[in-house]
Amino acid sequence: MRKTALVTGASAGIGSEFARELARDGFDLVLVARRRERLEQLAQALAGELGTKTLVLQEDLSDPAAPQRIYEAVQRDGIQVDMLVNNAGAGIAKTFRDAPWSEHAQLIQVQVTAAAQLTHLFLPAMLERGYGRIIQVASLAALVPGVARSTLYPAAKAFLVRFSESLAAELWGSGVYVCAVCPGFTLSEFHDVMGTRRALAKLPRFMWQDARSVARAGIDAVMRNETVYVSGQVNQVLAHAVRMLSPRLARTLMSQQGKRYRGAAPSGDHA
Length: 271
Fold this sequence. Notes:
alpha/beta; two-stranded parallel sheet; 10 helices
């Protein structure tokens, strides 16, 4: 029987590449995002190329009621979700003070609350079957000191890392694997949406990854039952180096680099 993966934020960037890679691995799909037209185009392409069956759900995860609607729609269609990829993301290209609370609340809803709720909704059936794979798309920003003009984003991603670690410990031996995938700077339209493309263009080319590589590595990591996976050798070296430094020195260095490259850019890495 073919397995099914549910991917949020699947209309572009890392999310759409997760969908493509999972389809190549033989999964059918439930694709969730705000832009239905893009989801339907992706679904049609995968059906024609690979025979993938896809349920398209247009939902905005900044709406607190969206996770429950997604779960109920999947139940109505009699779909068994074997893999959950919480990829939907959000960023704020402003200081914490300058952004209205409504924007901060949306970020928390999308990246923290919705991810945790979707996990809570789909986990019981995975446990009953003795099989499940859950990917929380976090960020390298969760593993290094925060920088100015990027306040709630790394905090939200750090939540996903700690949540994954704790949940993986609870589920040990159950057949359900949990992995926090931590990409660094990834080529996608996220930076165009955020208006930060020009600022981040200052970064050297070797620091960037393509979205397909991130998605492929993330799928392989959860299948190996890795709990926290940093994608890309450069990012792995950076994460390790930060751990070796004193907290004070690490904060100083990150602050300097943030001023050099980011300007008003958030620590965002994907859409």
